[in-house]
Amino acid sequence: MEVFNTPNKIIITCNKRLSPYLQQEVEELGFEIKRSFSTGVELFNTLNETIKLNLNLRTASQILYSIKEFKASNPQELYDELKNIAWEELIAFDGYFSVTSNVDNETITTPLFANLKVKDAIVDRIKEKKDIRPNSGSDSNKAVVHLYWKDDRAEVFIDSSGETLAKHGYRKHPGKAPMLEALAAGTILASKWDGQSSFVNPMCGSGTLAIEAALIATNRRPGLYRMNYSFMHFIGYDEEVFFQERRNLKEQVNKKANPKIVASDLSQQAVDIAIMNAKTAGVDQLIDFQVCDFAETTVPQEEKGIAIFNPEYGERLGNHSQLELTYKRVGDFLKQNCKGYRGYIFTGNPDLAKKIGLRASRKVEFYNGKLDCRLLEYELYEGTREKPKVIYE
Fold it and tell me: Based on CB atoms within 10 Å of each CB, which residue in 42, 107, 177, 189 is the most buried?
């Protein structure tokens, strides 16, 4: 079974509401999208092409290459169909694989049972053909097989990614309640920041937004920080394809880019963590880290750009009454210190957002985990012209 050079359906998944930015990324890489949906996009290409996708995409989670679609009403039919696949041509008899699944079938009470049937089919097939059985378990750092099974429709994939792509590999010290790297990249793409003008990020926490901004500005891709993917552990993998793509990533880094990125936090510990993460990503020299109250953050005036906040929502961190005052102060900071900028506040609490005292010109929907969130955009006009005070609705 030659999968690395055989075109087939590819599903690229992402967190809900990141799909528009994933689609933008995929098209900018030169791929044609066959279908887009709320949690991903569909392509038609080879497993080799997933290598480029895995190394380049900022907002993706998993990249799945379809092996077979079939009908299965119950676990036995699932097993029988899967056992007919030439797994011995995909997974080495002395290798290791794991199984993940997305199952909605009335005969299955737990996805773990479906995973077990997939594992049994693969192991039994390889043992019949090679007289030895591969190892399997829950670790996703080797070959990963993914099952999608809804009602009587099933499809089995090579999960070419393995560990999720949503984590970009540089954040060794996450800090408190960090924003997922893929989500941070998505919010920056949603802001339409040009990668050259100023990027101001008060309340930076562990630095994810500022670091992702620096990565985007310099065209550094997530593949620079990762050396292991599931596709490497399937038969037919040509390591030269991978290393050529990594060489391409290194060559396309824009070392001349010098955006003015400012990140601040009241916590010395948070800033220390952010600096460590930025050093791992190789962008610490591009970010001006400051320890201060957010209202004292330096806002460059020569090259105006965006100011973006990700304050606490009152869900996991912070006291609600204190946060009301904080949100009001954030609004005051934007009005008084960021004239000529576009302001952004990412929040999962609309009641607190009303305390900002500005009308959002745009509201972009996101999820942070399971929290329904908004990226609120504010046009911060220059000059002394008085504008009536209106609040977020």
Answer: 189
